[in-house]
Amino acid sequence: MTKEDILSKEQIIADSKEFSLFSWSAQASVNPIAIERAEGVYLYEYGGKRIIDFSSGLMSVNIGHGDQRVTDAVVEQMQKVSFVTPSCTTEIRARLSRKLAEICPGDLNKAFYTLCGTSSIDNAIKLARLYTGRHKIIGRYRAFHGGSIGGMTVGGDPRKLANDSQQMPNAVHLDDPYYFFGMKNLDEATKLSLSLEYVERVIHLEGKTNIAAFIFEGESGSSGCLKYPKGYLKGVKALCEKYGILFVADEVMSGFGRTGKWFGFENHGIVPDMVCMAKGLTASYLPLGCLMVSDKIAEKFENTPMMIGLTYNGHPVALAAALAVINIYESDRLIENTREMGAYLESRIEEMRSQHPSMGTFRNTGLLGCLDILKNKTTGELIAPYNAAADDLKVTNQIAAKVRELGLYTFVRWGYIFIAPPLCVTKDQIDEGLAIIGEALRISDAALV
To answer: Which InterPro entries match (predicted)?
Structure first.
């Protein structure tokens, strides 16, 4: 490639906008950042500007950017074999599958490889229905399970509303336990009991023999890192066992060390029947998802055809990236670092409160965190409500513009600032990112009523 062949930053942006479509956006308002390279917790824009990545891309680049150990593993695999049909197998498929069985608890020993998180969810739905002979799937209103029709339907993220007419049938939604009217002033034990009574009531109302599976995030992510009350997931899992319903954990965002454990559900003392994986599985170096299935479910298909499939099931190059990434989690002690840096992050957030009255609750597990930004300190009202309209996002948009201007990349959504840096982050880098967030919070501090 000659010097004349290299596109300018402006041309890259212009051609990307003219000849491609960007997700979740009105195309005229898209303003992408043109990234030339990335390393560790930093992105480097064309022109040299350094940007600290405080959301690990899409909460997925868990090992950090640009780790050449993954590149080397991918190149080595491509030099052997880059693709085989799913009816064949490879050494890398054997090695990764055994490794996943080792790190998953209980009898989660069977890996079905997919392309991404939402295809893991879709195949979990299909497999749950095939296994149980039932048809209904129960999810949460404040959950996100991907952008396919199945994933959008079982979740409740408002991005799905434009596609409501295309919804998958037989999906049922639960409200979250902390949003029930009249429960605010009750003690925790009473709230937990009433919340689980509500879940059981829904099971009966929907027909206990009609429900194939519950799908819950191991830890809440894009809805605002909302916390399950202590004992809630364990109680829901017990109800699933009582009524012969499968429990599917969506670990696409919360898996692979993000919460300080291999999987978010491990913070709740349960073992699901199926686990949906992606994102941190390869740290997004290549597209790959996985549906991890219990021996109990897999046994049904020993002599009965399992009627789910994908062209790229078990793609060897993506599997090579995944095994290399898992090895890095272990060799670099990234899960241990996540717990240490998560505690440091929480302590630093508390120190900042005296300077920023608009700071609300900070919900965090490991390095999956979300900070509430307040409009009214007395009432706790956020600067923008859940699923805010454009007219309500003035301050939110100003904060988002300021963090970008100052060289930080993260999600600022509604009344939330997400904080989920790569798991290799250091204390100095946390301080660097929080200093930028602190500058941006001056905007909401000034708007506080």
So the answer is: Aminotrans_3, Aminotrans_3_PPA_site, PyrdxlP-dep_Trfase, PyrdxlP-dep_Trfase_major, PyrdxlP-dep_Trfase_small
- Host domain of residue 428: 9-66+333-447
The residues pairing with 40 across neighbouring beta strands, listed in sequence order, are: 65
DSSP state of 353: T
* Domain CATH number, residue 353: 3.90.1150.10
Cα separation, 297 vs 138, in Å, equals: 19
H/E run at residue 52: strand 50-53
> Treating both helix axes as pointing N-terminal to C-terminal, what angle do 316-331 and 68-80 enclose, rounded to 10 degrees?
150
Element (H, E) at 320: helix 316-331
Average pLDDT over residues 217-227: 92
Domain boundary among 295, 312, 332: 332
DSSP 67: -
Q: Using CA atoms, how far apart are residues 130 and 133, in angstroms rounded to an integer?
A: 5
Are 140 and 273 within one domain? Answer: yes
User: Coil, helix or strand for 257?
Assistant: coil
Structural domain tally of the chain? 2
Examine the domain organization and report whether 95 and 29 are in the same domain: no
State whether residue 437 is helix, strand or coil: helix
